[in-house]
Amino acid sequence: MEGKWLLIMSVLVMGWSVTLTSASFGDRYRGRKSFLPTEATSSLAFSRAPSSIVLPVHGNVYPIGSYNVTLNIGQPPKPYFLDPDTGSDLTWLQCDAPCVRCTEAPHPYYRPNNDLVVCNDPLCASLHAPGAHKCDNPEQCDYEVEYADGGSSLGVLVRDAFHLNFTNGIQQIPHLALGCGYDQLPGSSYHPIDGVLGLGKGKASIVSQLASQGLVRNVVGHCLSSRGGGYFIFGDDLYDYSRAVWTPMSPDYSKHYSPGFAELIFDGKSTGFRNLFMVFDSGSSYTYLNSQAYHFLTSWLKRELNGKPLKEAPDDRTLPLCWKGRKPFKNIRDAKKYFKPLALRFAIGRKDAAQFELSPEAYLIISSKGNVCLGILNGTEVGLQNSNIIGDISMQDKMVIYDNDKQMIGWTPGNCDQLPKSRSFSFW
């Protein structure tokens, strides 16, 4: 996962390309173009108040470096492992259409049905910049996504059945649009996966599609455990909104889950960096700061560690900056006493300013060599320019909520080892 979803998402539809700045950076088949109820989806279900969907997560920040959820797609349903990515909209599977080039995958490649998304479908149009939607081939919607690590997927949009269990006890089987990726190139951060689960803000996002059918509210949440695993939630009936810290999504950056600009705080004191454009991105294992802020932070850390029993470990290539102690560290608890807390303050200067706390556990890992390594990286070096990413390492053991209906982002400490079942469930 790491780096794969980091910056550039190019969507190529009928030969026209648009480049979207993103945190993750986002034929031959024809048939139904809209959702049709199945035996498991009745009109009664649609008349009920929206429920939620809980998806268990597998993986960790380190050493695996990726997360995945399992979705059952198709008729008959087959399981697929997908990277859950709040930094991009498009969900796609490696697809035997037939497959021109595909990478190793945990399951047999997806076999599409005959339900093509046509070019004039609003979901296809949503993958283009305004005014740039052209239909040289009106019978299909082609796409191409390219990622910052050099990986890519090319294919067509289709609709198929997603078999989803809701917290109200009902299984529903909506037909949702996804990419049938028949030409993939692996990137430098490649790991075997069936595809990507796009959970961004756009119309093509799976949660947006579910919300448009009245099945859930347009809300995404995730709780990633520092011990590995966790869960994602679609919908809003499992949250106690009063327990979370909230900040508005920036109206100036509608493509991403961004609260706008943040101030970097070190040990309760301002660092003077107040214009850090931040994006929350579950598709990034680590957190990224632009080059200026990164070098300031690492210099500050080195000064703080001067005189303490830690020495830099340049021979440990796990991450760019690691330190060794007198003896190998077994866990973060052994090393955290040498490090100070960080924070990001949003809505600077306003009464409703919100602070996202970063304890040492939220920016450090223990490498396989027993060294402690900084999980905040230089974003400029990987092409992020002045954008900054809040990645999985900094969101561990927090319930993070993206409420697209209210245009708010919230967070609160979370018990991410236990799946929620009802609103009465406590995240703490």
Task: Provide structural commentary.
This protein is mostly beta strands and 428 residues long. The chain has six helices and 28 strands. The protein has helices spanning 43-47, 122-125, 206-212, 291-305, 332-335, 392-395, and strands at 8-13, 16-21, 53-60, 66-73, 78-85, 92-94, 142-146, 152-165, 171-172, 175-185, 195-198, 219-224, 230-234, 245-248, 260-266, 269-270, 276-280, 287-289, 311-312, 322-324, 342-346, 354-358, 364-366, 372-374, 376-378, 387-390, 398-403, 408-413. A six-stranded mixed barrel has the order 4-5-11-6-10-8. Strand 8 and strand 9 form a beta hairpin. Mean pLDDT is 86; it is low at 1-49 and 424-428.
Notable traits:
428 residues, 6 helices, six-stranded mixed barrel, disordered N terminus, single chain, 34% strand
Strand order of the largest sheet: 4-5-11-6-10-8
* Approximate shape: globular
Indicate the low-confidence ranges by residue numbers: 1-49, 424-428
Helix vs. strand class:
mainly beta
Taking the alpha carbons of the first and last residues, their distance comes to 28 Å
Strand runs, count: 28
Strand percentage? 25-35%
Fraction of residues in helices?
under 10%
Mean pLDDT: 86
How would you characterize the largest beta sheet? 6 strands, mixed, barrel
**DSSP helical segment count:** 6
Mind telling me the C-alpha Rg? 21 Å
